[in-house]
From TrEMBL:
The lineage of its organism: Eukaryota, Viridiplantae, Streptophyta, Embryophyta, Tracheophyta. Residues 9-61, 62-112 form the Myb-like domain. Residues 9-65, 66-116 form the HTH myb-type domain. Coiled coil: none annotated. InterPro entries: Homeodomain-like_sf, Myb_dom, Myb_TF_plants, SANT/Myb. This is Uncharacterized protein. One of its GO terms (molecular function) is DNA binding. Keywords: DNA-binding, Nucleus, Repeat. It comes from the Eukaryota. GO terms for cellular component: nucleus. It is found in: Nucleus.
DNA sequence: AAATCCACCAACCGCTATAAT
DNA sequence: CATTATAGCGGTTGGTGGATT
């Protein structure tokens, strides 16, 4: 049969961790490194299940955890990525070194989402008109406007993608690409971005690394005190540098990924798509929606 | 000063994919 | 190959502390 149980449910402590428990866990990991979470609690003398230990370590005790408020640059990254990917907290965490998925998720739910909701009614999106008038978005701050625009774009993209997938299924002809980014890039959303890119005739910098990356996170060893880190990090961007502007500046400080991706062609196309989609064209962030009226039309 | 409300966040829960037996 | 545990992820909950009434 399969493996033995990870922990018997009885006699397992739950709830907040005490400093003593934290100390036991940290000491054990510093001494033995990361290995089997299943056996860790017993070996470390903890009355916790392995899952709880893993969460405590990854979300709180890891030495590379960055505490404190999110910088504007980090905020912008989250908004960008959420606009693109939705609730992919783990992926966002991989792009924000020192931040955990849990932290990002909490930050989104308690700050960004609220802000988005609060300014929601103020939005005046002129979709009824078939004219080429740009969407009229009224928001207090550029960052908020930015966020709303990305959310709008994401909702549109999702709607269109689901519609497309329905159509594809009904036709049973074309195979949908397994990669969501490539799907998105191949959709009109990506098309609209490409048009703008060409119009502008410039290659804008992206907050997302040019280094090939994959959603399937490859392990990478961080230069840290505790040896084998349970790193979910693949390609990381150093956003520790405070960036006052809302817009994303080019970031040269990119860590090297130790594990290369096997299928580079696929990964590259995915990354290019993601990179380009995360780049804002021109001055008006959502200009392409107004210009490309077919964006709102079904295929 | 007490009660209530609210925001924040750590931790848990449940699900899925993958790995081990 | 089937079964089961593990790891990882996203959603949700509950405790805590500060603000407000």
């Amino acid at each position: 049969m399969g493996r033995g149980p990870c922990c018997d449910k009885d006699g397992v402590k739950k709830g907040p961790w005490t400093p003593e428990e934290d100390q036991l866990l940290v000491q054990y990991i510093q001494k033995h490194g990361l290995g089997c979470w299943r056996s860790l609690p017993k070996n470390a003398g903890l009355l916790r299940c392995g899952k709880s230990c893993r969460l405590r370590w990854t979300n709180y005790l890891r030495p590379d955890i960055k505490r404190g408020p999110f910088s504007p640059a980090e905020e912008a990254t989250i908004v960008h990525l959420h606009g693109m990917l939705g609730n992919k907290w783990a992926y966002m965490a991989s792009q924000l070194p020192g931040r955990t998925d849990n932290e990002i998720k909490n930050f989104w739910n308690t700050h960004l989402k609220k802000r988005l909701t609060s300014i929601g009614p103020k939005l005046q999106i002129n979709q009824s008109s078939s004219s080429s008038e740009p969407i009229n978005i009224k928001c207090e701050s550029p960052s908020t406007r930015h966020m709303v625009q990305w959310e709008s774009a994401r909702v549109e993209a999702e709607a269109r993608l689901s519609m497309q997938s329905l159509l594809l299924k009904s036709k049973s002809t074309a195979k949908s690409h397994p990669d969501i980014f490539l799907q998105l890039w191949k959709s009109e959303v990506g098309e609209a971005f490409r048009i703008i890119e060409e119009k502008d005739g410039k290659t804008s910098e992206s907050i997302v690394s040019d280094t090939p990356l994959s959603i399937k996170n490859e392990p990478v060893l961080l230069d840290d005190t505790v040896t084998p880190m349970p790193s979910k990090t693949t390609t990381v961007i150093d956003t520790t540098q405070e960036q006052e502007e809302d817009t994303c500046k080019p970031n040269e400080d990119v860590m090297t990924v130790s594990g290369s991706i096997g299928s580079n062609e696929f990964a590259d196309s995915t990354d290019t798509a993601l990179k380009l989609l995360l780049d804002f064209p021109g001055g008006n962030d959502m200009e392409f929606i107004g210009e490309e009226s077919e964006f709102f039309q079904l295929p």
